[in-house]
Inverse folding.
């Protein structure tokens, strides 16, 4: 769900680990344990491997010892802030088949964008690239969901103005959900840019607040 | 219509024009090169990540003493 998904959808991240989103239930966790055993993966940081932590929104960090995956890092999560439940993510997933025959299931682009709305600097340019790439790929013949996605998630003022002015009715309808669209429809680039910055700052603050109790719990586990 | 080159550098515009699978394969090539050059598999420390641990546990040396000790220190 992490770096490789970003590459697939059009951003570029040189990720050195593999991020997996999994359903957190007893049966699946047993399956996951077997797969991780095959990779000789060991937990390398808090929290320990357990349903309780995955359900709370923590990530489990592992490192593989199998010779074919030696030192590869794996992070496992089940719940992410602002992102729907695993069952919804699974329904909306993108499945790709690689030339070697391997099948990969990726977070859908809208879900990936939501998952990337974190407190970290590096995630925001990534979101911008992801949505730009999608826009350039589909703008010649878009469907209504794609237009809606751009209006909700584009972070490039010039493109947001282009979409808003081409789809004024839908834009007006979405202003209550994303107030900065009012600036986009009027073509006010500078004001829009400032509004986008404020939107990002507010989201980053929400992410910091969300993680506050989880960080405290991690600290306790580290020193407890 | 705004063109990618009006917003991003040529390399990025070119990257956008690849299909998703082409991008995936390009990144695999980059990955192979990185490993061939001896690149580390350890993620870069990310101080903004909620998982960041400023004092990760380190393996203890077999002799049980501190691995690195200050033997001499300047006055500065």
């Amino acid at each position: 769900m992490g770096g490789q998904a970003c590459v697939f959808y059009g951003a570029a991240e040189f990720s050195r680990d593999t991020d997996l989103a999994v359903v957190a239930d007893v049966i699946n966790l047993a399956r996951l344990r077997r797969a991780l055993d095959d990779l000789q993966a060991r937990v390398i940081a808090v929290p320990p491997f357990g349903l309780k932590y995955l359900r709370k929104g923590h990530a489990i960090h592992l490192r593989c010892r199998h010779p074919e995956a030696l030192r590869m890092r794996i992070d496992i999560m089940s719940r992410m802030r602002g992102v729907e439940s695993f069952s919804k993510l699974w329904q909306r997933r993108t499945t790709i088949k690689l030339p070697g025959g391997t099948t990969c299931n990726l977070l859908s682009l809208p879900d990936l964008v939501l998952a990337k709305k974190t407190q970290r600097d590096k995630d925001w340019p990534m979101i911008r690239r992801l949505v730009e790439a999608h826009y350039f790929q589909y703008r010649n013949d878009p469907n209504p969901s794609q237009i809606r996605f751009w209006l909700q998630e584009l972070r490039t003022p010039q493109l947001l103005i282009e979409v808003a002015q081409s789809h004024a009715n839908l834009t007006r309808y979405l202003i209550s959900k994303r107030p900065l669209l009012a600036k986009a429809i009027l073509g006010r680039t500078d004001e829009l840019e400032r509004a986008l910055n404020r939107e990002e700052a507010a989201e980053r603050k929400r992410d910091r607040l969300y993680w506050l109790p989880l960080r405290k719990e991690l600290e306790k586990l580290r020193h407890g | 219509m705004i063109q990618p080159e009006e917003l991003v550098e040529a390399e990025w515009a070119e990257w956008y024009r690849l299909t998703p699978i082409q991008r995936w394969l390009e990144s695999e090539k980059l990955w192979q090169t990185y490993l061939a050059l001896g690149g580390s598999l350890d993620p870069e420390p990310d101080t903004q990540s909620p998982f960041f641990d400023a004092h990760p546990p380190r393996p203890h040396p077999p002799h049980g003493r501190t691995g690195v000790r200050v033997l001499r220190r300047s006055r500065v």
About this structure: Chain A has a mean pLDDT of 95. The radius of gyration of chain A is 19 Å.
